[in-house]
Amino acid sequence: MFLRGVWRSARVGADLACCTGRGTDMLQGSFKWQRLRKIYAHNISGLQNSVDGAESGVSSPSLFTATISQMVTEIIGPKEAGLKKPTIPEGKTRHLCDVYGSLSTEDKATFLRVVSRQFGTDHDEVLKAAEGLPQAKEKSEAALLKAEERLQAALVPRYHDLFVQIGRLEGGVKHLVDMRADTLDLLSTVKDNAELRSFSSCLREMLSHWFSAGLLHLQRITWESSCDILQKISEYEAVHPMKNWSDLKRRVGPYRRCFIFTHSTMPREPMVVLHTALTNQISDNIQTIVSTPILDDEDVEDINTAIFYSITSTQKGLQGVELGNYLIKRVVRELQAEFPKMTQFSSLSPIPGFRDWLVGEINKVLSSTESSSSEDSGVDGPSSTTPALLTSAELKKVAEIAGKEDVLPLVTLKKLLQTNQWMGAESMVETLKDPLMRLCARYLYLEKRRGYAVNPVANFHLRNGAVLWRLNWQADTNPRGISQSCGIMVNYRYFLGDTMRNSQRYMEEQHIEASQQVIDLAQAAGGVDSPAGKSNL
User: Fold this and answer.
1) Given Cys at both, which of 320, 329, 443, 489 links 475, Cβ 3.0 to 4.6 Å?
2) What's the rounded Cα separation, in Å, for the pair 325 and 313?
3) Which residues are in the Malonyl-CoA decarboxylase C-terminal domain (predicted)?
4) CA nearest neighbour of 312 among 187, 451, 457
5) Amino acid 60: pLDDT
6) Residues 6+ apart with CB under 8 A from 532
7) Contact yes or no for 306/282 (Cβ under 8 A)
8) Regarding beta strands 305-313 and 272-279, do their DSSP bridges make them parallel or antiparallel, or are they unpaired?
9) Is 62 helix (H, G, I), strand (E, B) or coil?
């Protein structure tokens, strides 16, 4: 099974591109590649003559590993070559990409493990180069610089050269993006693999350079854009999925703007997509944006606000590469040029993870309740230092409305949240408004990971210099919005004159700039000792 994709390619005549046309010229005189062709042919024969394909004269996994090693070595040169890189025919690199693309998910994982392990940094060479620095420093400045150059070269993993070779191919950058996506998928299934993480980091750094802001092309998408791009815009939309073509037409029509970043190496592939609504006020719910009837014309005089209501990174392999923040900044400049009266810029953002966090907090309290055998701890929190989730009066009312007064109130609340049943009763919606709003403020403003906002959307906008400006009740009443954040959405507002300062304070001091509404709600939820967050916003 481990080379099924390769064997299938071989059967239909690929045979490692060594048999006909360009492949013959490309590999003429290359003994190792001719040998690899024979190895593959031998395995095909072995697989055909064996039910499980395990016996063909050589251990199949070992043969696969050796073959990968041979193919990569043919491209980047042997380890002994050092800084002298061989001149490689493009066809060998392209063929490796073709082989990798034809592998099953399991075989790709083997390929990535082999390359990350066998072609990483040579630690002995690094230590050797480092040991030579003191002696070189005593000799001369030139000797020291030369020693540092050797150390720098030793620190570069060998697969870096493979990435460079692949990146030079037409379509090679896209191949590397997909390869990193495969690597991230593999890392999500293993507990700890330092070699794979280093492999992914090296690839991310290269992609960061290739996808820097100056090399990205800003493009506005309209209903007149090409069908394939429109189709991808619809398919990639992850925040507020589109139901049909009419939905798509609405989102690229009047009073709406859709912008994408593309790259010269992937011209028909959106890297990141930003949907914007043009309004005369900061929107407080998504229904008015995605469900508004399609209008014919825009009244430019009535537009003074841009609402960024959906931003989607389309390429998993570019995870960790800054794209969205650059897109927002570019779009702000575009809109200012188009609408001179535009003065307000804000997001209308989902809060993924809020409900799950809240259920987790309820579980903590229930666990503490069981250990202390006291129902009161469900109100006061698991310890005297832990802020309460709901007041006694709120929990009592929840139990009364639900008709579950004989059950621990927090158990009832947990079930209501997990099943979204609380949305079915207007009295329950009204009862939960205050506690859910203040708990959401606590989640966004106070809950941290390594000093930064635990919510990924909040972290993105705060890094960009936005202000945690307003929480909006019943802002997304779709099932997805209720399941993610109990229907609450948030505006992250961009005050253009303050974004750089806000971003710097967040990155350096982990300070979150927030409005008075958010600060008051967070204080009501507990955990804010003093009005240190007093805001003029």
Assistant:
1) 489
2) 11
3) 214-494
4) 457
5) 61
6) none
7) no
8) antiparallel
9) helix
Number of neighbouring beta carbons within 10 Å of residue 212: 13
Catalytic residue among 349, 377, 503, 515: 349
Q: In the numeric block, which tokens belong to residue 381?
A: 């929190």
Task: Kindly tell me if the per-residue pLDDT of 468 is higher than 70.
Answer: yes
Predicted pLDDT of residue 77: 85
Read off the pLDDT of residues 336-378 as tens digits, 9 standing for 90 and up.
999 999 999 999 999 999 999 999 999 999 988 766 654 444 4
Q: Of 58-62, 301-305, 410-414, 435-439, which range is least confident?
A: 58-62
For residue 23, the model assigns a pLDDT of 40
Which tens digit of pLDDT belongs to each residue from 78-109? 876 555 556 667 889 999 999 999 999 999 99
Q: CA 487, CA 481: separation in Å to the nearest integer?
A: 5
Task: For residue 124, give the 3-state DSSP assignment.
Answer: helix
pTM score: 0.81
238 has a pLDDT exceeding 60: yes
pLDDT band, residue 142 (cuts 50/70/90): very high
Catalytic residue among 461, 485, 503, 515: 461
- Give the alpha-carbon dihedral of 384, 390, 395, 398, to 10 degrees: -160
Residue 272 backbone dihedrals phi, psi, to 5 degrees: -150, 145
Q: What are the angstrom distances between the C-alpha of 537 and each of 43, 48, 436, 516?
A: 70, 73, 23, 7
Residue 511 appears among annotated catalytic residues: no
Amino acid letter at 200? S
DSSP string for 366-391: HHHHHHHT-TTHHHH-SSTTSPPSS-
Per-residue tokens: 142: 């030139």
Write down the residue that tokens 């997509």 correspond to: 273
Question: In the predicted model, what is the mean pLDDT of the chain?
Answer: 84
Determine the angle formed by the axes of helices 60-76 and 105-118, rounding to 10 degrees: 60
CA distance 138 to 71: 43
Give the pair of three-digit tokens for residue 2: 């481990």
What's the CA gap between 314 and 237, in Å, rounded? 8
Task: Give the integer Cα–Cα distance in Å for 118 and 112.
Answer: 10
Our answer to whether residue 188 is catalytic in this structure is no
C-alpha dihedral over 90, 92, 94, 100, to 10 degrees? Answer: -160
Residue 122 DSSP SS3: coil
Predicted pLDDT at 197: 95
Residue 402 contacts residue 412 (beta carbons within 8 Å) = yes
Please count the CA atoms within 13 angstroms of the CA of 373 that sit on its side-chain side: 0
pLDDT per residue over 160-206, tens digit each? Answer: 999 999 999 999 999 999 999 999 999 999 877 899 999 999 999 99
Which stretches within 168-226 are classed as H helix?
172-187, 194-210
